[in-house]
């Protein structure tokens, strides 16, 4: 009587072990590819935002939006970018970085959390924000604006600035809130989830210093270019007119890796 052919237990265990080994080798590579794909998709969204911003400023002779425009009723949201840019936005998906689609109220954890919901915004949520120093409020030069006593003279107001500066002035990027006005002395986040919200009065650089793309942030600039910026490099950008790009948190000031919070020490210094 002919015996049936089949795999022995040892052979099956060897095959399973080989498959498990291959998966262990491939999984990190697959995770890297997945992260890279999300970073590329984020850049694609921001390129579309460059088009949106360029259309808006062209319609207003180069001027930016007023932002949280002061009034007798307080700071009103109607002139913020989620409202003024809404008519120019054709694709709702570009509101979100692919790594930060869920809201904190939906259980998302920073830095992978979108801001919102906001009933007073036409775009009720998102995961990008504007450099608050670009705003053009209807206030006299010399007044303080709006929360930490910053001079209005620091605001850019208009995109038509010295051409050599435009590739260094941030316009729009990943952000934990709708905007932020970084100062050169702003401290870095103590951990990846240490963000600054609207009410904290904390370092507003934290709003942009997000570890969503392996130690880097996708940033658009005044010349409508898009670049991958290292999280430490954020302190070298020209956020406002008087921002010192060789300030406290830059290599030019003598700072070393050991001076940064633990989670940032392995990233490139600038």
Spatial ordering of strands, largest sheet:
5-3-4-6-7
Can you give the helix content as a percent range?
Answer: 10-25%
**Any idea how many domains?**
1
Give the number of helices. Answer: 2
Mind describing the biggest β-sheet?
Answer: 5 strands, mixed
Low-pLDDT stretches are none
| First-last Cα distance | 78 Å
Q: Which value, in Å, is the CA radius of gyration?
A: 23 Å
Mean pLDDT: 87
List the helices and strands and how they pair.
Blueprint: H1 9-59, E1 69-71, E2 74-76, H2 81-84, E3 128-131, E4 170-174, E5 179-180, E6 216-221, E7 226-230
Parallel strand pairs: 3-5
Antiparallel strand pairs: 1-2, 3-4, 4-6, 6-7
Summarize the structure.
The chain is of the alpha+beta class. The chain is built from two helices and seven strands.
Explain what the structure shows:
- By secondary structure, this protein is of the alpha+beta class.
- The chain has one domain.
- Helix content is 20%, strand content 10%.
- The protein has 2 helices and 7 strands.
- The strands form 2 sheets. It has a 5-stranded mixed beta sheet, covered by helices on one side. Strands 1-2 form a two-stranded antiparallel ribbon.
- The mean pLDDT is 87.
